[in-house]
């Protein structure tokens, strides 16, 4: 889209210089009903807006600017040229904007405020990243209870959880639930579950600055080096909570733990980040 700047220049309002360009950017965002701080570029050399086509662009002096929105701890990258089509409550067909998710930079293609939720800004990436809150496996606890080892009480449940993770070769701090009321493991089927007293626990693994949410019920099928068909575990990406469906250590990279989400997105982290107490 950035190559289309010249084709939209005719009939466009074009201004140069950081001060006036920043002012015009804020005015346009305000006009279409989006937050005024959405495009915090630096040293803006040119701003252009073709009102007839809705095409807008920004050219900044720096090759790239990364900005972290502090309240949500979200880092966004802005290229030297940022373009979009502007309309009421929306920037669409965006180019030059990326957000950092699972240590990957994903292109942001649309930003909008829906009429139903005027207090929220939604970011859409080129991957079609989205998530649904579902937990079908948790309902299977009762069907796996027969012949399972079942324990109750936080201390013994935490101990058994750590022992199981150690047995299958995963980091012992991978499931830092709180006030665990029940631990169950059916060795014949490989099905395990944890029930905690709290509705949800959020834990940030400090070394990788990754926040993970654990529901009241967490379930998975366990095998050597892997938890699969996980339910009740989510990771926060692009201000969305994405379900983690698999966690594993590959034979080729025993020092890395890989997380796979329901969207197909995956990434690997140093196993030491999930040591007990981290």
TrEMBL record:
SUPFAM superfamilies with a match to the protein in the record: At5g01610-like
Protein name: Uncharacterized protein
Superkingdom: Eukaryota
Annotated InterPro entries: At5g01610-like (IPR036758), DUF538 (IPR007493)
A Pfam family: DUF538
Coiled-coil intervals: none
């Amino acid at each position: 889209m950035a190559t289309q700047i010249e084709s939209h220049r005719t009939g466009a309002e074009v201004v140069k210089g950081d001060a006036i360009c920043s002012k015009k950017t804020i005015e346009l965002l305000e006009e279409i009903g989006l937050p005024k701080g959405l495009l915090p570029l630096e040293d803006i050399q040119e701003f252009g807006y073709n009102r007839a086509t809705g095409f807008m662009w920004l050219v900044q002096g720096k090759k790239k600017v990364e900005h972290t929105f502090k309240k949500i701890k979200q880092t966004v990258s802005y290229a030297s040229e940022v373009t979009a089509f502007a309309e009421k409550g929306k920037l669409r067909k965006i180019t030059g904007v990326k957000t950092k998710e699972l240590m990957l930079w994903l292109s942001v293609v649309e930003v909008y405020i829906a009429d139903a939720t005027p207090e929220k800004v939604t970011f859409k990436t080129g991957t079609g990243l989205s998530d649904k809150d579902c937990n079908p496996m948790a309902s299977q606890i009762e069907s796996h209870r027969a012949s399972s080892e079942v324990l109750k009480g936080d201390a013994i449940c935490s101990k058994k959880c750590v022992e199981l993770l150690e047995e299958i070769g995963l980091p012992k701090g991978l499931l830092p639930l709180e006030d665990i009321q029940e631990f169950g493991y059916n060795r014949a089927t490989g099905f395990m579950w944890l029930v905690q007293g709290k509705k949800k626990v959020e834990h940030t693994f400090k070394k990788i600055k990754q926040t993970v949410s654990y529901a009241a019920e967490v379930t998975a099928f366990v095998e050597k080096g892997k938890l699969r068909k996980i339910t009740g575990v989510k990771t926060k990406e692009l201000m969305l909570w994405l379900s983690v469906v698999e966690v594993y250590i590959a034979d080729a990279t025993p020092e890395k733990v890989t997380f796979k989400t329901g969207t197909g997105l995956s990434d690997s982290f140093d196993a030491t980040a999930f040591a007990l107490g981290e």
